Amino acid sequence: MDTVNRLDIETRAGPRAAADPPTVRILVDGAEVLRRIGSMELVAFPGTDLLGARSPLIPQDPAQRVALYHCGCGEPGCGVAAPLITRHGERITWSDFRDFVGVFHEPVFDGDVGGGTPLRLPELTFDACQYLAEVERASEDLG
User: What is the pLDDT of residues 6-17, one digit of tens each?
Assistant: First the structure.
């Protein structure tokens, strides 16, 4: 049987509350697995970019690649952790994690994102009901 992971999303006010967008931490089985990949230190895109009624975390048809975390240098296009987010019945999967430089300045790039550098991350599989409820809950906390 496939391992089913648990998604949790923590939302927090930005560092300068009213001046900065809310921040998020994406936790898989209680760990922020995308925070550090190899030598890359990453931070999640702002909550206003990842959550809400049109959240890119919600699987689309066809599947789309979504940059969840970006380089911590302050320049989002510098590098990212971007998996394909797909739904197959009662499972949602993040797979084929890739790093792109100079492409993703926000979580979704509207164009061809071929290439990228594969990242050494395992495929993550979530129960669709738990996953979608968590995205909805975190979106409501943001709003």
Answer: 999 999 876 665
